[in-house]
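Ligand-bound model needed. adenosine monophosphate.
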Amino acid sequence: MALRFFNTLTRKKEEFVPIEPGKVGMYCCGPTVYDYAHIGNFRAYMFEDLLRRYLEYKGFKVTQVMNVTDVDDKTIAGSRAKNISLSEYTKRYKDAFFEDLDYLNIERAEHFPEATAHIKEMVDLVKKLLDKGYAYRSNGDIYFKLSSFKEYGKLSKMKLENLKIGARVASDEYEKEQASDFALWKGWDQKDGDVFWETELGKGRPGWHIECSAMSMKYLGEHFDIHTGGEDNIFPHHENEIAQSESATGKKFVNFWLHNGFLMVEGKKMAKSFGNYYTLRDLLNKEYNPMAIRYLLMSTHYRQQLNFTFQGLEAAKNAIQRLFDFLDNLKRVKEEKDNSEVDSLLQKAKMKFEDVLDDDLNISEGLGVIFDLVRDINRLIDDEKISRNDALKVIEQMRSFDKVLGVLEKDELVLDERIKELIKKRELARFEKNWELADKIRKEIEKEGIIIEDTPEGPKAKRKI
Ligand code: AMP
Ligand code: ZN
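Prediction:
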């Protein structure tokens, strides 16, 4: 079956055909670095990682661009409250963002353009809009004239009857109910302190929406394949991006618009402003394994809402543990006769996995396929009906699935000398019935992320997920 995505622009699943065969250009709205990102934000970045990984799995060469918003109302307010420069203020959160990506094993995009390093591109785009009559000046600001773009509303399907001609919004915050002329450029005012650029447009700074149009077109061209973000970005941010870009170039901006559903907490969107959020750091401090968090954020279809609970996180942890146990079981398989059933199980699983992922990235069914395979192969292992050669094939297939999942990459359990020594010491303590010491050593080993299980064959080391 062909690869299909649900396109917000048409509200339909459409076959994905790239502009240039074999290549995909995709732009993802990235973080505003005024604070640590919360795991709701990471649901968006996880969905984009899944999309990227699956496109790569299908053999596409992906060029992914994710912007870093390092100048806007919130970053300026934050730096002024702390009395430090904007760049000093945002650096901490930029660094934290990249660290968090690594914790979650999110592949790096090819480009992470920062808004403050692309003022020239934004100014050029605004100049073009002014020249063509799509923008106008008002008290030092420059606004996009909404009524000049006849297709406004085509992405969000928003009805324009409540459009007030000439109504303006300068703030970067969302205006939920009302479509308005929006600021492309904001003339300096006192609240901006020392944050401004002297440009041909005057002294000031860019609006938020223009940033994504200018930077996506710089790195991907005026017309590209995929643009993503959370569903809260559809209006007004992405609608405004379309209006600015298509007015400036006269071309269709993006072919496929993909949006993820929210991460929710007790029926409400996880958001800084509601105070109902966890950062990744909050969860890591509670000793949750980042791979369990990754699995949780990924395992529900990206367009569905996902309710965050600690129970869900426990379930994610157990799911990964099962996968690791499975790999460990496979590694212990002894030499037996090859079993032709294994080949057909693997082939079927691979086909089904690709079928469901081709269908708008149906990862929850994809995981179902993998766990069915785990169950069937585990049965063969228990019955000693699988050879070492078969087991290696299964491991290889699991690694191939994991190119998409990204949760098993760090699976090799290699015990260093110190841990081996501790295990020996603990055995001795147990032999001497010194339970207190044995327990103390066990805890020390656990701190290294390793659990010791005592089995009739002796102690077994397992990864602590
Ligand atoms: P922001 O920093 O608010 O612009 O958000 C960065 C990305 O995270 C955007 O794509 C948002 O749509 C997305 N996002 C924000 N909150 C959530 C949430 N609770 N669930 C899923 N995605 C979110
Ligand atoms: Zn954006």
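The first helix runs from residue 39 to 57.
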